[in-house]
Amino acid sequence: MGDATSTGQKSGDRSREETTPAGPTGDDTPGVLGEADTAAIGEQALVVEGVSKRFGDGENEVIAVDDVSFTVEQGAVVGLLGPNGAGKTTLIKSILGMVLPDEGSVEIFGTDASDGRRGAYVDVDAMLEGARNDYWRLTVRENLRYFATISGVDPDSVTGRHDRLLNRLGLGDHADTAVRNLSRGMKQKVSLASVLAGGAKLIFLDEPTLGLDVESSRTLRTELTRLAREEGLTIVVSSHNMSVIEDVCDRVIVMSAGQIVADGTVEELLGTANRNAIRITSADIDDHVVSRLEARFTLLDVETVDGGRRIELEATGEELYTLMDTLRDAGVTVEQLHTVEPDLEDVFVSLTGDTQGLRGPSEGEGSL
Amino acid sequence: MTDAADPTPIEQPRPATYYHLARAVLYREFLIFVRYPANAIGGIVVSLFFFGVLFYGGQQLAGQALTESLEGIIVGYFLWTLSVGAYSSVSNDIGSEVQWGTLERHITTPFGFAPVALLKGVAKIVRTFLTSLIVLVAMLLMTGTTLRIEPVTTISIAGLAITSVLGLGFAAGGITVLYKRIGNWLNLLQFGFIVLISAPVFDAPWTRLLPLAHGSALLQRAMVDGIRLWQFSPFDLALLVGVAVGYLAGGYLVFHYATRRARRLGVLGDY
Fold first, then answer.
1. Continuous segment of H or E residues that includes residue A204
2. With an 8 Å Cβ cutoff, are A53 and B266 in contact?
């Protein structure tokens, strides 16, 4: 899988200007499902430099994206995390040209998106949150054929690949069903399939598992991982769902208040949590014990459970001996003791201070 | 889940041409037209109902005077149904695409949005012609009137006349992209078409520059007086083409800059 770096550089004050695209790129056939025609993994699929976007004026001005720079190598699966209002969607739309940034530049597969949009976006597609992305009155297969054409691919030349895509996403039996007659989860899958139908090499997925049941979500995650690993597709995923990010992404960018506050692999980010928590359960833990522990340790959580209490506190090295001594002196018989590994949610909270958005929409639930 | 277990042969994707694009856009319109005919049938029924009210009510009020101008009324009504169909289908279509999140995908297509929009416009015109022809035939049967319908002349003049309306539709669609839920207000413009179709082009020649007005006058002469396309003066035909292309280009420019403004404001697709 590819790697990527956050450069943190600003490219200057050049505003993007739209150019008028015309005609298809005859010699630049987009790959379908990103198979063998994808460029060598390791080259940069996306370069974002100094992108900023403000909305409103004066006192009402909101800086949605603030001097954001990063690169994504081909074949990488990058997660974009952040609380509501962090600027994720504005950033994605700025990259896609749906929002014109005030500053900065975007380069896609070596083509400056501000100079020639047609050339830059020929291998790019996106599934944005809250959008249907397809036509509900057409059948699933008709949608795939239509959007393959719109993406610049003769649909007759990729019928077999469409069949495989439909089967992998569990849509094979519904290929000739009008999308409007499918369940919400199925519609979400059709939306993804239509994004992949044209053979885009770089796709943006905003909350791709929103509304999916657990099984559908797992299928979709598996397929995303396969697409990246086997077919070299470059994927940028924005999601509140930490498990999706952990499962699918080999790199995570965390945004807060329009800026990138962390950028690294999941393991690297977990390493920054710097938290060694111990969870102890005992029937002997009362308010007095809690007070004594609070005086010597950082208490993270105190919870009443059947027949006692469960506390979570930070303790490392020598502190562990002190903890045991304190508990023994207080006459506490430890019933359960666990070390607590930090997860991505802990990292997210510590980086963004957001405790509301961290649980986000779980599978089958709505967005926060 | 693996390709090894999948017997489907791997194909090499071929680039789509403008032919494929045209086929895809027109086929989609065709599918929706035949698969969901309720809208089209509803439009035909409503058009005929209002014509019936106009015809029978007018007979009670105006008597012989109405009968003398009936051919002109039928031609005007035919052009009005064409115009309303073309305008509303384009402006409403853009509004729907914004709502569905599919407009962005058309704007970022490697073909560019202009050819897609043009093809969609052609599809709307073809569809509108089909429904309006049914209305026209029904009106003729209902009133016992005959018109001189020479297909090449009628289709050419009516097609160019409503091309200018397509431009208005694109402009309205652009405003919808910017300001969202204002479709009902923009639909009121349809009633303005009645004024344009009945514009006094002989008494006030400048009105020929308005959309529909000149085309309406030529269509009256073609369908009522039997004048063929090649019997019109080059000036009349050039003006017809000029007005059509001018309003279409102007409307598309409004749409283009409205979507650009929407992207600047970050409201493209935010419905």
1. strand A202-206
2. yes
| DSSP states along A255-294 | EETTEEEEEE-HHHHHHHT---EEEEEETT--HHHHHHHH
Q: Do residues A330 and A289 make contact, with C-beta atoms less than 8 angstroms apart?
A: yes
CB contact under 8 A, A29 and B13: yes
Token readout for B246 is 């001018």
* pTM, to two decimals: 0.75
CB-CB under 8 Å, B16 with A154: yes
Q: Please report residues of A whose CB lies closer than 8 A to that of B14.
A: 29, 153-154, 156-157
pLDDT in tens, A260-281: 988 888 888 877 766 678 888 9
User: Among A268, A238, A234, A272, which residue's Cα sits nearest to residue A255?
Assistant: A238
Whether residue A108 contacts residue A202, with contact meaning beta carbons closer than 8 Å, is answered with: yes
| Phi and psi, residue B149, nearest 5° | -100, 100
* Domains assigned to chain A: 44-123+200-271 (3.40.50.300), 276-341 (3.30.70.100)
Q: In chain A, what residues touch B12 (CB-CB under 8 Å)?
A: 157
A105-109, A206-210, B127-131: least confidently modelled range:
A206-210
Q: Rounded CA gap, A195 and A197, in Å? A: 6
Look up the ipTM and state it: 0.80
- Taking alpha carbons only, the member of A17, A29, A236 closest to residue A122 is A29
Q: Write phi, then psi, for B16 (nearest 5 degrees).
A: -80, 145
Query: Taken in order B225, B230, B231, B235, is the CA torsion positive or negative?
Result: positive
**Interval B157-184: pLDDT, tens:** 999 999 999 899 889 888 888 887 676 7
Give burial (CB, 10 Å; 0-12/13-18/19+) of B36.
exposed
Checking if the pLDDT of B35 tops 80, the result is yes
H or E element at residue B22: helix B18-35
Contact B1 A149 (CB under 8 A): no
Whether A171 and A48 have beta carbons less than 8 Å apart is answered as no
Task: Report the Cα B247 to chain-centroid distance in Å.
Answer: 13
Token output for A248: 């699918």
